[in-house]
Amino acid sequence: MPQRIGKQIHELLMRSTTIRLIPHQNPDGDAIGAVSALGQYLRAAGKKVEFFCATETPQQLQFITLAHEISHNPQIWDTPCDVIVVCDSGDPVYAGIDQYLKKNPHTPVVVIDHHETNTFFGTLNLVSTAHSSTGELLYDYFKANNIQITPDIATALLCGIMYDTGSFSNSATSNKSLSVAGILIKSGASIKKIVQYIYKDKYINVLKLWGKALANLSYDRELDIASISISLEDMFVSGVDEERANGIANFMHTLKDGSVHMVFREKTDHTVKVSMRTTKDTIDVSLIAREFGGGGHKKAAGCTISAPLSHAYETMLPILKKHLKKI
User: Fold this and answer.
1) Integer Cα distance of 110 and 127 in angstroms
2) Which pLDDT score is estimated for 169?
3) Considering the entire predicted model, what is its pTM?
4) What confidence tens digit (pLDDT) does each residue in 146-184 have?
């Protein structure tokens, strides 16, 4: 971790009174875990802490301490704060707050992130792609600044590490991430609670929806892409909402065939959410996602495109060929 930047951020936060914490929109376990851990330590330091996310917090992440306090009301931006802290997001558009930052040009922005696609848009940027997750990066930040890691903070940080390493199964897993996870468990992190809410949360109707989607799996032999689509009608018939429909991208990642695995899911505004995964070191799916205004990691990324579900793959095809045909 860049310790000088970490110290500067800590000093700025300790000088501030009101601090607004931001996970990226459509937040995952790493984003919510990060703002939770930061919020807990700042509250303990006597700071007024506010939370904002441009989209709803998934129900499966509500067990994380302070997650229930995250506001989705844009009116929160009508009131000034001393500093804005953006967690687990490479740029303000992905974070869902670009319009609000433009309206608050004089408010310092702290960015804490581990994505290779980070644009260093903050006043202070604690960015390290060597870390598996923002949770792991924050662990180093806490240790460097002698911040006590309580059991609830440890759970929040461990949730982030487990989420972004796929429970220590993907390429983000390292000696460091495993070591930090062990320390967090020793500090009181509840791995049982994380597993219960994050991984044992599938219902019968969700698995039936997945079955229908998998039955129509497509394979592009030329580009070595396996993909599935989930329509609003499929979700309605199955009785599954958008939130519950998530998760199949990680399941697709267990597929041996295909260099890239893609999930196209129709949203209620009739845009299409695209999730991409790869296990190949020669492929960077985040570069594909960035061309559509998305982001993520080299081997796991996503974006949203404005196209009918039936034409979503064709809409992305020129960009897919640009990045994959030479592989």
Assistant:
1) 10
2) 83
3) 0.85
4) 999 999 999 999 999 999 998 898 888 999 999 999 999
Q: Which is nearest to 128 in space by CA: 136, 9, 92, 22?
A: 136
**Which residue do the tokens 């899911």 mark?**
265
CA proximity to 54, closest of 106, 92, 107, 13: 92
Provide the sign of the torsion angle of the four alpha carbons 140, 143, 147, 149, taken in this order. positive
- Give residue limits of the domains in the chain: 3-199, 204-324
Contact, 257 vs 219, CB < 8 A? yes
**Of residues 286, 241, 288, the one with CA closest to residue 265:** 241
**Average of per-residue pLDDT across 21-28:** 94
CATH number attached to the domain at 204-324: 3.10.310.30
In this structure, how many other beta carbons lie within 10 angstroms of the beta carbon of residue 109?
20
Helices (H), the chain: 3-15, 29-44, 92-95, 98-103, 134-144, 151-164, 175-186, 191-194, 204-215, 232-238, 242-245, 248-252, 285-290, 312-324
Counted residue by residue, the chain has a size of 327
Q: What class does CATH assign to 3-199? A: alpha beta
Closest by CA position to 126, among listed 304, 24, 296, 7? 7
* Per-residue pLDDT band at 259 (split at 50, 70, 90): very high
Structure tokens at 176: 């460091």
DSSP string, 227-280: EEEE-HHHHHHHT--HHHHTTHHHHHTT-SS-SEEEEEEE-TTS-EEEEEEE--
